[in-house]
């Protein structure tokens, strides 16, 4: 039971247990950039596995605002402060917390440069910088994004989108533009559409939800579409790339989205921009032409720079989705491999798992699970492993899955942030 619980929560079980107490050099310095699920998990795991290692976590924000469950905030079902977590427990565990923005990395000298011009040296660097937006849709920019909030970083825009929905005229139309993959949290836009429909069904029942998607398939597609029909009738309409729904331009001032074939006016709009690894990944030389970071699968070592590892949303993990569950699992394995490297030991080979819960309503959950193995140059699906929620499950199963989702979020945030 304990081993199964460890697997379900972290995606990595036995390899961690045998490594605690294996002493790395007291002089070893490991720096972690980014305090999200990946970076905070890596720092905490390093502290557990090798207490003698000097671990520094660089994160400019004093509070982390989690994206998982933030769609419930938009739907008015959850407070934003329930999504917020401090780093004080990590600091109390002996991790050096540097609340500055990392602005550059020099892999040749093994140094991280901070916004205040301070320089921090490292022996090993773990980068978990997350994503940045690509403002490549004509008419959309960081300066006018509040007119069509992406809310893809939880926080102020989450509340802004919630408030815009509350003020939407009766019978109005909510329109969301969804980019082509890859992007953070593949099922996130469809969960958002579901929970917004849940809100509108109660407060604005004649409103419409229109999804303009840059692709023709999406995560849990059959489960979401069945849920929309069951829960919301014809309120939710999805259009894919084959329907000409790819958004090619926007007029943010008028909340108008232009596709290949038509212009769509919205009362409230959420435009999720294309994404890439955060800009510091490029400055560090660990991002390739795709904008993402190629890694050696077993260790998450950068394939472009020595002594640097990349985990979480910024990494090219192939079959593994850009999810909080995957980030946490990658972080644990990466931390173990870094300790192995500091001890001049052979890295382990481990499979990882991911379970991704989504809410089609606050009490209606669906999920997909996968098992992944490291290949020569990529993380690969393990054939026959994993699975998805049954399409014909009854409401009791859906309620149970919603409960599992909440339990997972409570468990992972307690584990990572204390």
How would you describe this structure to a colleague?
The structure is a single chain. The chain has helices spanning 2-10, 14-17, 37-49, 70-74, 88-92, 156-166, 188-203, 221-232, 279-283, 324-342, 395-417, and strands at residues 29-33, 54-58, 63-65, 84-86, 96-98, 102-106, 111-114, 119-121, 124-127, 131-133, 173-178, 208-213, 236-239, 247-251, 256-259, 263-265, 268-271, 275-277, 293-296, 301-302, 308-310, 315-316, 352-361, 364-374, 379-381, 387-388. The chain has 418 residues and is of the alpha/beta class. The protein has two domains: 2-60 and 100-132 and 275-346, FAD/NAD(P)-binding domain (3-Layer(bba) Sandwich); 135-271, FAD/NAD(P)-binding domain (3-Layer(bba) Sandwich), CATH 3.50.50. The strands form eight sheets. A five-stranded parallel beta sheet has the order 5-2-1-9-21, with helices on one face. Strands 13-12-11-17 form a four-stranded parallel beta sheet. Strands 23, 24, 25 and 26 form a four-stranded antiparallel beta sheet that branches. Helix 7 links the parallel strand 11 (173-178) and strand 12 (208-213). Helix 3 packs parallel to helix 10 (324-342). The longest helix is centred in the C-terminal third of the chain and has 23 residues, at 395-417. It is globular and about 65 Å long. It starts with a helix and ends with a helix. The model is unreliable at 1-10 and 13-25 (pLDDT under 50).
